[in-house]
Amino acid sequence: MRGLGWAAVGAFLLVIAEITVFVLVAQAIGWLWAILIGLATTIVGFMLVKREGVRAWRRFRAALGEGRPAGGEVSDGVTGLLGALLLIIPGYLTDAAGLLLLAPPVRHLADRQVRRVAERRISPAAAGDLFGPRVVRAERGPATPPPAAGDSPAEIVEGEIVDR
């Protein structure tokens, strides 16, 4: 319930910020132009939702057809759809965030974050199936004394996970 409360506060603050920015833009360029730009970004957002959805579905199906993990296509599709949906929401701040998410460098960074969140929320086996095997770099540390009676006989190897 706590997260829902913060989400409501965040949504309220976003509405206040959007109204403030809209009024400032309308005063600077005129009310008609401000409304027309808002309508144009909403229309572009609707067109991009369709394009991004179809594109993500085709790439997902192609990955499955080729027998390779489809997680990269899924996370990229989610990022593109989120950018397009932000353009649909009325307001200049959400439009700016949506346009940023559609720009390739920012989209790539957001795509990596979506992948990391997904990998943390699902089991390692499912993450391996979805995103493919992870590359792990391991270094052997100093020798450890043999385990005492009742201790686990497993050897601990410290390592670092490296994304390709």
Can you characterise this structure?
The protein has helices spanning 2-29, 31-66, 71-88, 92-102, 104-121, 124-131; strands at residues 135-138, 159-162. It has a two-stranded antiparallel ribbon with strand order 1-2. It is elongated. The chain is mainly α and 164 residues long. The chain has one domain (14-133).
Key traits:
164 residues, mainly alpha, two-stranded antiparallel sheet, 2 strands, 5% strand, elongated
Biggest sheet layout: 2 strands, antiparallel
Helix content: over 70%
Structural category is: mainly alpha
Tally of individual helices? 6
Average pLDDT figure: 85
Coarse shape: elongated
How many extended strands?
2
Approximate strand percentage? under 5%
Q: Quote the distance from N terminus to C terminus.
A: 38 Å
- Low-confidence runs of at least 5 consecutive residues: none
H/E element order: HHHHHHEE
- What is the total number of structural domains? 1
| Strand arrangement, major sheet | 1-2
* CA radius of gyration: 23 Å
